[in-house]
Design a protein that fits this description.
By secondary structure, this protein is an alpha/beta fold. The protein is built from 14 helices and 16 strands. The protein starts with a helix and ends in a 10-residue tail after the last helix. The mean pLDDT is 94.
Length: 407
């Protein structure tokens, strides 16, 4: 067996399909977000503006967060030294979990090293706690949710995206006495559309199901205190388990769930992804706690964030570019071809100093390839003008069709 040839074939297939992914060497500049330096393969550097980051509010540069991390490093050193069960639980971890439980008005929170692990570990563990559990999962759920449901060994049903009528059909067809859980998201990150939270909660009440919501693209940015779309809509009390991230709007790293104290205790006690993973470094936990606390009162940042997203969408629509607009902060511009999407991304970076990664299959279905822009409160008028002008020029240069908004 020529293993190297097999690898060459697999990689060449990605190149041929126009969806081979490359890393862009980005050096963020403290205090200058969204500006950064791009280091090319030849070692030369070029100043760029980041338009595809998940640090939605620039909290990764916030002095309050940085100071909390410095203080924790000075007090404790670098790593946690172990898993949460073996020397890896510190005052910083407990403080962060308390901040998160308070944020979501839940009894408890449980930290993980990422929201991916939080989803995977929790969803794969729940059937151990509720034998015979049936999980109903939205067709466009995050890969981490799909993986957790797939690995749990229990029954699963996939309902069409945001289709509550289909969900009802699936619920009604199953044993009314079987334990059930509905897993879905508040904001689906590729199109920027919202999940029908109230309607799903109504079905959960009717059929006696638990509810599990992924708020990773909403925490920090929606709701009076940044707890997400469920808080904005006054529905947090109807959600049994809330998953969130500390690596997007909060600007640090890590993931979590919040729920009842017993639910968190059970997941903590049974989930291998929690039990056998070294805990977050204390400095990361300290920075995340400071960020969560800060954003609980930073309604101005949330308002500015929404205003910038709205402004960018209006400008792009005005040029006839095919964007999807569901009213969230995510701005997808549809290209529909992986080669063209990569070409646009490369030209934006090299010719205009604008960094936005192409989004191709399998992240999105074939034929829906896109550029996905994530404006922040600190993408000012100058940055928006530069982006809009560059997109206008390149769209014409590449002879791409202009159309009315796709959403």
């Amino acid at each position: 067996m020529d293993y190297t040839a097999k690898l060459d074939t697999a990689l060449q297939r990605l190149h041929d399909e126009g969806r081979y992914r490359t890393f862009i060497d980005v050096e963020r500049q403290k205090g200058q977000f969204p500006h950064a330096m791009w280091t090319r393969e030849d070692g030369t550097q070029k100043p760029i503006t980041v338009w595809c980051g998940n640090d939605y509010l620039g909290m990764g540069q916030n002095p309050v967060v940085l100071q909390a991390m410095h203080d924790a490093i000075d007090a404790t050193g670098a790593g946690s030294g172990g898993t949460r069960n073996i020397s890896g639980t510190t005052v910083y971890h407990k403080r962060l979990e308390a901040e998160l439980a308070d944020l979501h008005a839940k009894e408890a929170a449980l930290l993980f090293t990422s929201a991916y692990i939080a989803n995977d570990a929790t969803l794969s563990t729940l059937p151990k706690l509720f034998p015979g559990l049936i999980i109903y999962s939205d067709a466009l759920n995050h890969a981490s949710m799909i993986e957790g449901v797939r690995r749990n060994g229990g029954a699963k049903r996939v309902f069409r995206h945001n289709d509550v009528d289909h969900l009802r059909e699936l619920l009604a067809a199953d044993d009314p006495d079987a334990p059930k859980l509905i897993a879905f998201e508040s904001i689906y990150s590729m199109d920027g559309d919202f999940g029908p939270i109230a309607e799903i909660c109504d079905l959960a009440d009717e059929f006696g199901a638990l509810t599990y919501i992924d708020e990773v693209h909403a925490v920090g940015m929606y709701g009076p205190r940044g707890a997400g779309v469920a808080e904005r809509d006054g529905l947090m009390h109807r959600i049994d388990i809330i998953n969130g991230t500390l690596a997007k709007a909060y600007g640090v790293m890590g993931g979590y769930i919040t729920a009842t104290a017993k639910m968190c205790d059970a997941i903590r006690s049974y989930a291998p992804g929690f039990i056998f993973t070294t805990s977050l470094p204390p400095a990361v936990a300290a920075g995340a706690a400071a960020s969560v606390a800060f954003l609980k009162t930073a309604e101005n940042l949330r308002a500015d964030h929404q205003a910038q997203a709205k402004a960018l969408k209006l400008r792009l629509k005005g040029m006839g570019l095919p964007i999807i607009d569901h009213g969230s902060h995510i701005v997808p511009v549809m290209v529909g071809n992986p080669v063209h999407t990569k070409m646009l991304s490369d030209m934006l970076l090299e010719d205009h100093g604008i960094y936005v990664q192409p989004i191709n299959f399998p992240t999105v279905p074939r034929g829906t390839e896109r550029l996905r822009f994530t404006p922040s409160p600190v993408h000012g008028p100058g940055e928006i003008d530069a982006l809009v002008n560059a997109m206008d020029n390149l769209w014409s240069h590449c002879a791409l069709n202009r159309a009315e908004s796709a959403g």
